[in-house]
Specification:
about 110 residues; mainly beta; OB fold (Dihydrolipoamide Acetyltransferase, E2P); five-stranded antiparallel beta sheet; two-stranded antiparallel ribbon; 2 helices
Length: about 110
């Protein structure tokens, strides 16, 4: 494992977001399209490979850790402009969530 320069890490905008909408991506077995409130009236779309671990109804309204300032990329024809942070151990996927109820948009750091 190599080190990441601190300046690179410091440039990431990590926040708590609330998942507002979730739907399966047509043509994919595991991708979900998420609409996430990242605070300050800003909504971001994320295309995430969480469909094997979560049903859409299990994710709606959840608070999650999000990288909000990624360069947008197209996945399955959809723009993904944020990343929900999750762990993966074997086939087990677990999204990162705050331990307590915090305000949407709270910075992680």
């Amino acid at each position: 494992m190599t080190g990441v320069p601190f300046d690179t890490f410091a440039n990431l905008d990590l926040r708590i977001g609330r998942i507002e909408e979730v739907e399966p991506v047509v043509g994919s077995k595991k991708l979900l399209r998420l609409r996430i409130d990242v605070g300050g009236g800003v909504k971001k779309q994320s295309v995430a490979g969480l469909g094997d671990a979560y049903k859409p109804e299990d994710l709606r309204s959840k608070l999650v850790a999000v990288v909000t300032n990624l360069e947008p990329r197209t996945i399955f024809g959809l723009i993904s402009e944020a990343m929900v942070l999750a762990t993966m151990e074997g086939q087990t996927i677990s999204i990162l969530q705050p331990e307590k109820d915090v305000t949407t948009g709270t910075k992680i750091g």
